[in-house]
Amino acid sequence: MCFTGNKRTGMTSVTDLANPPEGAERVFGDRLPLAIRFAQLLAEHGVVRGLIGPREVDRIWDRHVLNSAVVSELLPEGWRVIDVGSGAGLPGIPLAIARPDLEVVLLEPMARRVAWLQDAARELDLPVSIVRGRAEEAAVRDRLAGSDATTARAVAPLARLAEWSLPLVRPGGLMVALKGASAAEEITRDAVAVRKAGGVRCELVSCGAEVLDVPTTVVVVERGDVARGRDGGRRRRKDR
Questions:
Q1: Is residue 136 a known part of a binding site?
Q2: Which of 25, 52, 120, 162 gives a 20 to 30 Å CA spacing to 44?
């Protein structure tokens, strides 16, 4: 195990994080202890390993863990989800904790962050796949194409994210991008680029209104049938 020591990085301690917000149990159910442990790992090691800023420690639950996990309400059962530019494991690890039915792949190009993801997955005993690479690389596309959805959080502007992510998604699948206050502006600005990348519908939604004071803002883009030049429809992936 690569996690050692008990680093305190801010006002919030590991003990404090063992008392999550009331809504956390609704999101994670009987897997809440795993979510607590992940929050503690971020507090203990996230700042030192360059995953979160020092001021983020006090906001781990609402800004990182719950903010990520609530997008699970957009994902049907059994989907394969590629977390593009996973970094600290956000939103991929909270999604995998909240929804063990999902097949989650954490895609990350940086070696030190891949090491963190491997350590965290091992510590939490999560059956996620971890792939080192970039979404735009041919080898990555060959390996991960045909997935049901991608997720991304603070990775790139919408146009670039669509160019990277939509080729990994099957027709009818979704690109789920966690965004901030500029989301509506990005949708308007990047509409042409998103369509060029294969997006046929682009929708601004809020997730987690029942558990978060500030719901998560998400841009959802559906991939069309690019080869045939038409809408692919929201078809459920067949069980493998």
A1: yes
A2: 25
